Amino acid sequence: MAKSKKAAATKATSLKPSTAAKTAPPKSVSGKDEAAGGKRKLGLRGAAPWAARHAAKHAAEARARAAEPPLPGSARATIRTPIDAEDIKERVRDLHAALAQIKGLRKNLAKNFFEIGLILKNIEARKFYEAKRFPSFEAFVEREIDLGKTMALRLVRIVRLFQREGALEVGMDRLFAAITAIDSGGGESEATRIPQAPPSTTSLPMRPPGR
What's the rounded Cα separation, in Å, for the pair 203 and 208? Predict the structure, then answer.
């Protein structure tokens, strides 16, 4: 019994230093770390102190390279901002505004068809479609206008051929019919056409040679 108590006391004594070591506070690395509250200042997101200087140096070098004109045929020459970039942006903005107007007007197409034709005519005249890399006005209306290519082109022709008051009085459907008749080569009906005499089959004497 005495031996077991002595062994237990010896074991408890041997465990005390290890427990104390586990609970002891960590030692500071340097006096500077203690002044900083026990945390090292590593820059942005834990980066090393030299990382910010390195990034600033590379940014300055990149700005200097961008300021210099690129060599002919270099890869950087192909990604430079075009000279007319601001003009392209302005034309794209005007085109989007025109498309928004058409979208609102087409809700009452029978009443607003002439205004839609005016907007489309302005897009064609100012070549806004080139800002979106369309090769022609026909390709643009086929892809971007919900009215369809045929109707969009007919609306432009109505604006070119008719006055606004007369066009609104006649109506869109009758104007389309008139344009179809013009394109087919005549505006007369079969009943009002004047019959033409058949060509003569009488043979005429040939002119003698040498005269």
Answer: 15
Amino acid at residue number 75: A
Nearest-angstrom CA–CA distance, 116 and 119 = 5
101 exposure class (CB count in 10 Å sphere: 0-12, 13-18, 19+): middle
* N-terminal to C-terminal alpha carbon distance within the chain: 162
- Identify whether the C-beta of residue 148 lies closer than 8 Å to the C-beta of residue 109: no
Token representation of residue 29: 């690395």
The phi and psi torsions of 5 (rounded to 5 degrees) equal -65, -40
Measured CA to CA, the distance from residue 5 to residue 12 in angstroms comes to 11
Question: pLDDT, tens digit, for every residue of 56-104?
Answer: 888 888 888 777 766 665 555 555 555 677 888 898 899 999 999 999 9
